[in-house]
Amino acid sequence: MSWRRPLGCALATAMQGPRPVVLSGPSGAGKSTLLKKLLKDYENIFGFSVSHTTRQPRPGEVNGKDYHFVTREDMLKDVNAGEFIEHAEFSGNMYGTSKAAVQAVQAQNQICVLDVDMQGVKNIKKTDLNPIYISIQPPSLEVLEKRLRERQTETEESLQKRLKAARVDLELSKEPGLFNLIIINDNLEVAYLKLKEILAEEIKKAQGPKKS
Ligand SMILES: Nc1ncnc2c1ncn2[C@@H]1O[C@H](COP(=O)(O)OP(=O)(O)OP(=O)(O)O)[C@@H](O)[C@H]1O
Ligand SMILES: Nc1nc2c(ncn2[C@@H]2O[C@H](COP(=O)(O)O)[C@@H](O)[C@H]2O)c(=O)[nH]1
C-alpha cells in the first residue's frame, strides 16, 4: 500500500508529535459511544476520520459527519483510483478510510481517530500512519448480542453476521502486539477513563506547552 502522509505529518512524527489513534473491536462493543465522549470532551484535540460506507444511514446519522454514504459503484471507482488508505467488506457492505478523510483532520492539526474493523487494522499496519491501536471489547458475547439487539439498528440477518464477525475479531485480537491496549467496555465510565489514560501523553503533546 503506497499511502504516504503529507509532509506536515511526517514532520510531526519526526518531532514526536501526537500519533493518530485507531479504535477497533466488534460491532456493538461501544467504539462510537466512547469516541463521541472523547470528541465532545476534547473538541479541538481529536478529529474523526469520516469513513465511506455503502450501508444505509441509520436514523440520526448525518452524511459527511458519521459516514460518507455512497453507492458501491462510486466507492469501487474511488478505491480503484487509489483514493483509499484501506477498505474492507463487512457484514455485506463496503467500508473504507479515504486519504482525504485523514488529511482533513490533520489539516486542522488534530489527532486523527479512525474507527475500523479488524481488516482495517491489518491494512493500516501495512502503511506508515503509525497510530496507537486500541481494541474495544465487550465483557462477553452475550452482552454484545444484548447491546446490538437493544440498539435496534440491525435486521436478524445483519445481527447474526455481526456476531459471527465478533467471534473472529475477538480471536484475532489475541495476536501479541496487534493492539497497544485492549479495553473491556463493561462499565462505560471505567472504559472511558482507561481510554483517556492511554491517550494522556498524546493529549499533552497536542495541547502543547502550558503558558504560565
Ligand atoms: N458500557 C456500556 N454499557 C451498556 N451499554 C453500552 C456500553 N457501551 C455502549 N453501550 C451501548 O451499546 C450499543 C453499541 O454501542 P456502539 O454503537 O457505540 O458500538 P460500536 O462498537 O460503535 O458498534 P459499531 O461497530 O456497530 O458501530 C449502543 O446502544 C450503546 O449505547
Ligand atoms: N475497515 C474499515 N472498517 C470500518 C470503517 N468504518 C467503520 N468500520 C467498521 O465497520 C463496522 C460496522 O460499522 P457500522 O457503523 O455499520 O456499525 C465496525 O466494526 C466499524 O469499526 C472503515 O473506514 N474501514
TrEMBL record:
Provide this UniProt record's keywords sorted from A to Z: ATP-binding, Coiled coil, Cytoplasm, Kinase, Nucleotide-binding, Transferase
Alphabetical list of Pfam families matching this protein? Guanylate_kin
GO CC list = cytosol; photoreceptor inner segment
State which Enzyme Commission number(s) the record gives.
2.7.4.8
Guanylate kinase-like domain boundaries = 18-200
Q: Which InterPro entries match?
A: GK/Ca_channel_bsu, Guanylate_kin-like_dom, Guanylate_kinase, Guanylate_kinase_CS, P-loop_NTPase
Kindly list any coiled-coil regions of this protein: 141-169
Compartments in which it is found? Cytoplasm, Cytosol; Photoreceptor inner segment
The record, for CDD domains, names: GMPK
Any signal peptide, and if so, which residues? none
What is known about its subunit structure?
Answer: Monomer. Interacts with RD3.
- NCBIfam families linked: guanyl_kin
What is the name listed in the Swiss-Prot or TrEMBL entry for this protein? Answer: Guanylate kinase
The beginning of the lineage is: Eukaryota, Metazoa, Chordata, Craniata, Vertebrata
Tell me the gene name. GUK1
